[in-house]
Design goal:
The chain has 239 residues and is mainly α. It contains twelve helices and three strands, in the order ααααααααβααβααβ. The protein binds iron/sulfur cluster (SF4) (2 copies).
């Protein structure tokens, strides 16, 4: 039999901490309607869902929600917030729950991907020269083999391009053929674009890790390169 919740033994310390940082998070406005849970890809994993998470937060079940592995399977997609009639900010709640865990105790895979991105500019650890070789090679192959795309070109760090494009680093490593369809669309519509060579990867595991410093470092390096070297007025992140 499930254990009864002893409300007298609980307080809402964590909710108050989060509300200090995001006063408009709206946890008290939750209607328990379940709309968030209906569209959440992480619902029912680890016996948790977003409605239950907010309910437990409001009841002060801080220890249980901080210890739940569910906080690491939320994809931070934001769908729950988009559909919530009361604008309860569950993604920011999840982010703050992740931040409450000491960095060394967070999932090793996410720590590794974040650290790798900081070290090498992408979570897969692809050397920049290999990235440039792969995208150039795949583009040449398409141009040679598909006459309708004989003029298709891919550039890296082309100064003055209208658009700088981020790419998930998994694609050039494991699925290089998946790069082509997007290039063909851009080519067909006459888009003026280039890849950056610095922080070219679109993913950002430091964000998933709730590592503010790492997240900020990656973005600052990226923005510096775009502003000072490529000088593109627009960035498109495909992630
Ligand atoms: S959709 Fe919003 S109001 Fe409804 S249960 Fe989820 S958080 Fe609460
Ligand atoms: S942000 Fe997290 S909780 Fe919200 S819908 Fe996406 S996976 Fe579910």
């Amino acid at each position: 039999m499930a254990e009864a919740i002893k409300i007298d033994e609980l307080d809402i310390a964590f909710k108050e901490q989060v509300l200090e940082k995001i006063p408009d998070a709206g946890f008290d406005l939750c209607l328990t309607c379940g709309t968030c849970t209906g569209g959440c890809p992480a619902s029912e994993q680890f016996d948790m869902d977003p409605r239950k998470l907010v309910r437990m937060l409001n009841l002060g079940m801080d220890d249980q929600i901080k210890k739940s592995n569910w906080i690491w399977v939320c994809s931070m997609c934001g769908r729950c917030l988009f559909v919530c009639p009361m604008n309860v900010d569950i993604p920011k709640l999840v982010y703050n729950l992740r931040k409450s865990v000491p960095r060394e105790n967070r999932p090793k895979g996410i720590i590794g991907s974040c650290d790798q991105h900081i070290r090498s500019g992408n979570a897969m650890g692809v050397p920049t020269k290999d990235f440039i070789f792969t995208v150039t090679d795949v583009a040449e192959e398409i141009a040679e083999e598909q006459p309708e795309f004989k003029d298709l070109k891919v550039s890296v760090d082309r100064e003055g391009a209208m658009m700088a494009l981020n790419q998930n680093s998994r694609e050039p490593v494991t699925e290089p053929d998946e790069l082509g369809p997007l290039w063909k669309i851009l080519h067909t519509v006459g888009a003026d674009w280039t890849y950056p060579s610095v922080m070219w990867a679109g993913e950002n595991y430091c964000m998933f890790l709730a590592d503010d410093e790492g997240w900020k470092y990656i973005l600052e390096e990226f923005v510096f390169h775009i502003d000072n070297n490529i000088k593109s007025p627009m960035v498109v992140n495909t992630e």
